[in-house]
Amino acid sequence: MNKVFIIAEAGVNHNGSVDLAKKLIDVASEAGADAVKFQTFKTENLVSINAQKAEYQKKTTSTEENQFEMIKKLELDVDTHKILLEYCNFKNIMFLSTPFDNDSVNLLDDLGLKIFKIPSGEITNLPYLEQIGKLNKQIILSTGMADIGEIEDALDILINSGTKKENITILHTNTEYPTPMEDVNLKAMNTIGYTFNCNYGYSDHTLGIEVDIAAVAMGATVIEKHFTLDKNMKGPDHQASLEPSELKAMVKAIRNIELALGNGIKKPSKSESKNIITARKSIVANSEIRKGDLLTKENLGVKRPSNGISPMNWYDIIGTIAKKDYKKDEII
């Protein structure tokens, strides 16, 4: 089985601080994630000056600022991207970032990123999809708020622009922070995989880690999860993020599930084979039997261990003649 690609989503949980961003990279690396992902945007290209916040953002940030003012404080400049990319290389973890506008796509391409993550909000942004599709990179496409038809349209644009279908992984997700359990609809992840015959995964915004573990058991090849240094920090996404110990527990659980899924062939495992003799049974003498006696249902029984004749041969033995004397419980 291929290893699940785990993306630790730092997002904007650095609060605009390079030092905090580096600490987030430390946490993701120590947890064993494959990549740590930030967000790349020019605020002026992303939101209009009067755009209001989402409902969850209103609950987690100051009511005195609009969406533009909130996001502007979280913007990372080109030099910061270079610093974080270099630090990720030092910490042996892949640097990823989600571009939210066309200039940001160019910036990340110039930095040499091999994987481009398309956020849910851009799945209906045709010129943006075309621009990324032309790069012919590995693409991870999030599908929050989308239906099957919208996913199909986005795929067509990416493929027609120059990206090979086998280089696209589609993530099922729900764009509510945190996502209520009744809205996860994890089976839709498999629907995506069956419908498009593609690699699929799950980007999680629920509280806790159990849905991520279930997604891996259901065939997810990519898992993305927000994390933070402290859920109580100020900022829009901290409360719906994992803390360091939770991220570490999630990665460990996913790696265990990978091992547990195995190869799908049903046969005795290496660890259990030694227990076959003690756990299974053989045909034994149910009472004292003399040489020449007829072997019957009455004088035969089935008991452990299994190093004699298998009870599956029961009717081959019944009605035959004993070739020697047997004590009670002796294996036939």
Automatic annotation (TrEMBL):
One of its GO terms (molecular function) is N-acylneuraminate-9-phosphate synthase activity. Gene3D superfamilies: Aldolase class I, Antifreeze-like/N-acetylneuraminic acid synthase C-terminal domain. SUPFAM superfamilies: AFP III-like domain, Aldolase. One of its GO terms (biological process) is carbohydrate biosynthetic process. Pfam families: NeuB (PF03102), SAF (PF08666). This is N-acetylneuraminate synthase. It comes from Arcobacter cloacae. The gene is neuB.
